[in-house]
Amino acid sequence: MTTHAIEPEASGGKKAPQKKHAPHDKPGDKAITVEVNDGIAIVRFDAPGEKQNTLSEATGKALGEALEKIENDPAVRAAVLISGKPDGFIAGADVGMLAACRTAGDVEALSRMMQAQLNRLEAGKKPVVAAIHGACMGGGLEVALACHYRIATEHPKTVLSVPEVMLGLLPGGGGTQRLPRLIGLQAALDMLLTGKNIRPYKAKKLGLVDAVTVPYGLEEAAVTAAKRLADGTLKPRVREKSPQDRVLEDTPAGRALVFHQARAQVMEKTAGLYPAPLAILDVVEAGLKKVME
Q: What are the φ and ψ backbone dihedral angles of 5, each rounded to 5 degrees?
């Protein structure tokens, strides 16, 4: 068995001395650490001094650095993204980061930065398993969607959602595009337009997660899945579509009907006074008409 921790380069271009961390060692100055064990990189997200992990400019950059280390380490065959917090995966974006934005351009730059990191995660050649326990919401779910396999615990605190619409916002990390492709247009719109919480077994039924496990077995189950993904003996679940779903979601006429009905329902409930749900419909529809860029 081989274990090593990947450390960032020290100043001057020299590599810092490698340190070995115990499986749950959490260096206090790092939001994300990477430890490699038998070919599997454990990417542990544990924002120092915070009760919950959130996405910010700093953690977004840290995630990008972790991905680079995984890509460049020949000892890594696959990875597991897991939280170091006892009761939460990633609770969403740092609201303070959004509040600090002064212009639409500032918000767009943040969104593009996060989308670039998640596109890189999704496009990586080494499979990444999202090990979800606790709140997986907003940007946290968008991170999980960019992973190649998702396992959630059957714990009451484990919920998955995209609640941005309730704040008058749109998911900014690619969730409006990945979610319909994963669970289907109708189920995705239901989540995106309501912000409802999805529990683990419902998430599995929808295809939002690939497997459900007990909390104490999460990391072990995720590592096993990562190894099997790497050697090709495990594939992500493929959602089975009913004949009705194929008509409504896989044909231009069917999709047009779904969007028409969704807009009518939004207008009935909001009288057009809330722009976020209508904007979500617009970006989902636009995204389905072309390949993600």
A: -105, 140
